[in-house]
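## tool: complex_structure
## caller: assistant
## args:
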Amino acid sequence: MDIFLQQLVNGLTIGSIYALVALGYTMVYGVLKLINFAHGDLVALSAYIGLVIMMQLIGVVSSKAVIIIAVFIFTAIIISIFGVLLERMAYRPLRKAPRLSAVVSALGASLLIENGIMLIWGPMPKIFPASIVPNINWNVGGVYISLMQLLVLVISLILMIILYFFVNQTKLGAAMRASAIDQDAARLMGINVDKIIVTTFIIGSSLGSVGGLFIGMYYRGIYFNMGWIYGLNAFVAAIIGGIGNIPGAMLGGMLLGVFNAFISGYLSSSWALALTYVLLIVIMIFRPTGILGERVAEKV
Amino acid sequence: MMGNKQKILYGGFLLILIVLPFFLNSRWESVATTFLIYSSVALSQDIVLGRAGMFDMGHAIFFGLGAYSTAILNTVYGVPILLTIPVAIILPLVFGIILAAPIVHLRGDYLLVTTIGFNIVFTQALKNNVFGLTGGPNGIFGIASPSLFGYSLSSQTAIYFMAFFLLLLTLFIIRNLETSKIGRALHYINEDSLASECVGINTRFYRLYSFGLSAAIAGLAGVVFAVQFSAVSPEAFNFMQSVLFFTIVLVGGPSSIEGVLLGTFFMFVLPEMFRQFAEARYLVFGIAMILIMIWRPKGIWPAKFGRIPKYFFKD
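## result:
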């Protein structure tokens, strides 16, 4: 039972990171119907940029809390700028092109960012400083929870709640949902769809940057091509929940994290990746719209 | 039918390929051989992606199944290379149909994601040494060279011409496909699957047919690939490799033979030429992929389908 609960806690931690990254995929897919393959690499980039900012601040600022907050805010701003640039340069010119052209453009952007990271920071892994989040562990009835895990869980939860209210309660959020359902109709209602798309990229990239920083601080080792594997896993999470569906991405991320943790804990870690994708295939065959996705009749 | 211009173009292209190995040093001959193999795989991928219009991003599976069949039969059971060819064609074909059967009805991106999933499961299975046959992460070494009537075809030029015949065969199959009932059915399904179903085309059958055919060609290409490097490893058939074939088709021009060949040159030979720039080249390639898609969204050399008479258009 202890192992079960311990793996559950570990799984939820990783799952909330996946969920944060998955939100970026699902929101962009919602408005553009495009798999943003470069999103994972933006996540990797955010870990590197966060590390640079952190190293600059460590000598200057003494309070660790201030450093962490500053790192999160500055990284989010920088990555949002990258996200907007990405949309502007690689996706906007292709909005009227065949759908697969935009996919190739996304793959090109991913290659560009990944190799850009390698050229700047080199092919060897970089390590996050150990003591930035104090290594405190609590023993709750035989289950160990570290401060880092608690931070990941709480911050992710807060961000997701804010996002949920933003999308469902505000005017901008309503415009975003309208653009996702029918861009032309949204335009007729006076919604500036271009502005909505840019907003989507800003929100998706900032959430992704938080995810990337968590990956860096939780696992500590970051490497230039980690965007692919984290990106793909998060993307699978988005699909499991139902692509284009925001609560779906959150749920999918959590489920995937827990699923992964249980397989690593009970079976073998070398099959964890393969079984993740077996799960994906099974869901695709039996319920292609995901757990929360609604079945929509295809328009003819 | 082929026009005169096309006949000259293809004749010239094939002639260059025949004399090419006598002018190249060993490294470039190896690059040219791989170019021929990748072209065949990309052309086979194009049957599914360009002609049938299904977003398949896991084509390296079938390429890998062919290569691994040859490697395992040869190194474990001592079967001569040429006798492994039927297995290396039939196994990917059967797998292609089995894997595609439950998913061909899926729309665009869903199919793409599922094929990515298949590819990752495939590579993970190879790495985890399933049935103790696949040799784990390092793969299988020491694949023999084929021999025909007692002559060993181990020289680099012999392998080059094996790859050349592979491409020739692929081109022949695709030429025939283009002008056949099946090719026309696939084209129609790609344009409008609902309308094609309404006029009585069995879309499911033709989609599976395209998967089977393309998997079989890719499997045969895998045999030549295994022979060229006399080794196979999971990395050569991973998801990134599928992305490469996928990109080749779209950058070159879907369902255009010239386009796919150009795409292979652009995505595989060009990076080899700029090897001295080491890793910076992929950065430039990322930019180039974006720019090509912006300027030529239908590929560098898009396919042309007949000519629509002028009077259909308003001035």
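## assistant note: The two ends of chain A are 52 Å apart (CA to CA). Chain A touches chain B through 48 residues (CB under 8 Å). Handing back to user.
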